[in-house]
Design brief:
The complex is a heterodimer.
Chain A lengths: L5 H6 L4 H65 L1
Chain B lengths: L1 H4 L5 H33 L13 H28 L2 H33 L7 H22 L3 H15 L2 H11 L19 H33 L4 H6 L11 H4 L1
The chains are: A mainly alpha, B mainly alpha.
Chain lengths: 81, 257
């Protein structure tokens, strides 16, 4: 240990401001970078999922419509015969 | 070697491979960064000339070294993408740019905070500082180009050309302290032959250097995987990977698969 007390450690032999400024800015920038990268990852995943949901819904609706069309067609065929 | 590398041109294989690497990188980064920075701040000796301000060295030098090596890695990826049209290397280059920009900014800011007590000024327009500032602008330009086009292939081409032109700046930064008169001191660590550092300063430096290396690897992995997903969002493997039935689990659970 290079320092006798905690206040000595904070003072950094008179260079406290510059040393802690460096370590603080570095930590801040790295934390921002990590958080931004993670949130971008989540946003892309959420975006792809939302689009998939929409596509599935559209596909389901189209299938239902088709089924109904076939049904009404069959019904009218029965009536005719 | 090509046979061994070939599967990693497949985005799905690479996505899962990087996913497996990430926990290891996280553990190693946590270990090396905590050992290195505590050692640097509290246990390493003060410099006989610069006193305790020398503790900025353990951030400034790794950050400056990585600002250049990330640029070099980005240039290699851009070159592969321009010459062989590997789609994944485009994704890698665009994942690396913001990480490199952050480390360039850290190198500049810690340098200023070290320059003020040692040289008496935050900033001076000398060769080393100016060329490092140009490196930051190159990174910002590459990032802007990656985001400027809707078509990712076009964006990759434009950003790749700027990246390759900017490589000329790397030797200028590296040798600026030898070519021009400057306030900036010469190389401390990378001097071959006779090391100009004592062991009790070199070890904390090496630890924090490795810690930063692994931290950079994690961040690039996260960004690279995001790029892979967004560029392959219409592929069946992405669709099955992000199946809506897993909606109840948090999105982060996808990363561990």
């Amino acid at each position: 240990m290079q320092f006798d007390s905690f206040s000595d450690f904070l003072a950094m032999g008179g260079y406290g401001f510059y040393v802690w400024l460096s370590y603080g800015v570095t930590a801040l920038l790295l934390i921002i970078l990590v958080m931004a990268s993670k949130s971008q990852n989540k946003a892309v995943i959420a975006h792809i999922r939302a689009r998939q949901k929409r596509e599935n819904k559209l596909r389901q609706a189209a299938a239902q419509q088709k089924q109904q069309q076939v049904k009404t067609k069959n019904d009218s065929n029965e009536v005719l015969s | 070697m090509w046979k061994w590398l070939h599967p990693y041109a497949n985005p799905e294989v690479t996505y899962h491979f990087t996913g497996k690497l990430m926990p290891w990188f996280s553990a190693l980064a946590a270990i090396f960064l905590s050992i290195g920075l505590v050692w640097a701040l509290a246990f390493a000796p003060a410099d006989y000339q610069q006193g305790e301000s020398f503790r900025i060295f353990y951030l400034h030098v790794p950050a400056a070294m990585f600002s250049m090596s990330i640029y070099f890695a980005m240039a290699v990826a851009a070159f592969c993408s321009l010459v062989w049209q590997f789609k994944l290397s485009d994704a890698a280059a665009s994942a690396m740019a913001p990480v490199g920009a952050t480390f360039t900014a850290i190198a500049l800011i810690t340098g200023a905070a070290w320059g003020k007590p040692m040289w008496g000024t935050w900033w001076i327009w000398d060769a080393r500082l100016t060329s490092e500032l140009i490196l930051l602008f190159l990174y910002l330009g590459v990032m802007a180009l990656h985001n400027a086009f809707e078509d990712k292939n076009l964006a990759g081409k434009a950003a790749g050309i700027l990246t390759l032109v900017g490589v000329i700046n790397l030797p200028i930064i590296k040798y600026s302290v030898e070519w021009w008169n400057t306030l900036h001191q010469g190389a401390t660590v990378s001097k071959l032959g006779k090391p100009s550092m004592t062991a009790d300063m070199f070890w904390p430096f090496l630890m924090s250097f490795l810690g930063f290396a692994f931290l950079i690897s994690i961040i690039i992995c996260i960004r690279f995987r995001t790029e892979i997903l967004s560029r392959n969002s219409m592929r069946p493997w992405v669709k099955t990977l992000l199946l809506p039935s897993t909606d109840s689990t948090s999105p982060s659970a996808v990363g561990e698969k």
